[in-house]
Write a structure and sequence with these properties.
Order of helices and strands: EHEHEHEHEEHEHEHEEEHEHH
Number of strands: 12
Structural class: alpha/beta
Low-confidence stretches: none
Bound molecules: NADPH dihydro-nicotinamide-adenine-dinucleotide phosphate
Largest sheet: 6 strands, mixed
Strand content: 15-25%
């Protein structure tokens, strides 16, 4: 408990929100680290995100996760931003401290942690293909480039958006060859292919050639579910190793917990529990 005698309050804000796994994940983290907090769901009206946040702050709220469709509004609402939130142009984590609303983005580091630590995959020196140029792809750019890949190619259905990402992140590319291309131009194999499109939500696969996958390729879909996604099925049929985005979900949540509480929770047991629920 805090010095006012009440538990520190956190929420995940979205619309819809009933499906969110964040309360279960964060409550497990709190139990594991013996942190006194409460974490719930907050359904904000589609035209009432900022008001919902301000009301939560007035009630003593200490922080929030932000999900669809409010990540851009959270970015605009924040009074200060971390470097990775600025790079992503979107916020999935808010921390309330007096009058300050800190905006952060933990999605990209969640992805990289899942790949690098949980999957034991060293990104340094690798040829990476990033499919998609929406919010999730944008959030992944800085953490991916900070992992020192040899090459990063971005391909998107709307090529102009991939070009925009290249322009924006070129200054952070360091030794990495950073380029954009159309799906149809992809003919060579990659070490790592990350699906950051929402095609899997429509049971669809981006139209890429089978040659982008080889036996040594790791094919990572940010989406997760009970069954391997269509992208994972397509990649596996070409002999690739596959992984879904459940670990990314858990790792981005752990990073948010660290931002709020200064304590890093273990993630393996939470990941295993969520995986068991999906099977
Ligand atoms: P956005 O809506 O911001 O972007 C969607 C992207 O997918 C765009 O690049 C869009 O292309 C592309 N796209 C949509 N439909 C198709 C299609 N049928 N074929 C090819 N490309 C398509 O979504 P987000 O970036 O927020 O999310 C992307 C995915 O990442 C979602 O599946 C989401 O669930 C997942 N995600 C997972 C997280 C996790 O923790 N595991 C966290 C965040 C996201 P265009 O520009 O042409 O419209």
């Amino acid at each position: 408990m805090n010095d006012t005698g009440s538990f520190a309050q956190y929420v995940v804000i979205g619309n819809p929100i009933a499906h969110s796994k964040s309360p279960e994940i964060q409550t497990r983290f709190a139990a594991d680290t013996a942190q006194d907090l409460r974490y719930g769901r907050l359904l904000a009206p589609l035209n009432g995100f900022a008001a919902a946040v301000q009301q939560f702050i007035a009630q003593g709220g200490k922080g929030a996760n932000v999900t669809v469709p409010f990540k851009l509004q959270a970015y605009a609402l924040a009074s200060s931003l971390t470097a990775r939130a600025k790079a992503a142009g979107a916020v999935n984590t808010l921390k309330f401290d007096g009058a300050d609303i800190l905006g952060d983005n933990t999605d990209g580091i969640g992805l990289v942690t899942d790949i690098a630590r949980n999957a034991g995959y060293d990104l340094a020196g690798k040829k990476i293909l990033l499919l998609g140029a929406g919010g999730a792809a944008r959030g992944a750019m800085l953490p991916l480039l900070q992992s020192a890949p040899l090459q990063l190619v971005i391909a998107n259905r709307t090529p102009a958006k991939a070009d925009e990402l290249i322009q924006k992140f070129q200054p952070c590319a360091q030794g990495c060859a950073l380029t954009a291309c159309a799906f149809a131009d992809l003919q060579q194999p990659f070490d790592l292919v990350i699906n950051a499109t929402s095609a899997s939500l429509q049971a669809d696969v981006p139209p890429i050639a089978p040659q982008v996958f080889g036996a040594a390729t790791l094919a990572y879909d940010m989406m997760y579910g009970r069954q391997p996604t269509p992208f994972m099925q397509f990649a596996a049929a070409q002999g690739a190793q596959v992984r879904d985005g459940l670990g990314m979900l858990v790792e981005q949540a752990a990073e948010s917990f660290f931002v709020w509480r200064g304590v890093r929770p273990r993630t393996d047991a939470v990941f295993a529990a969520l995986r068991a629920q999906l099977s």
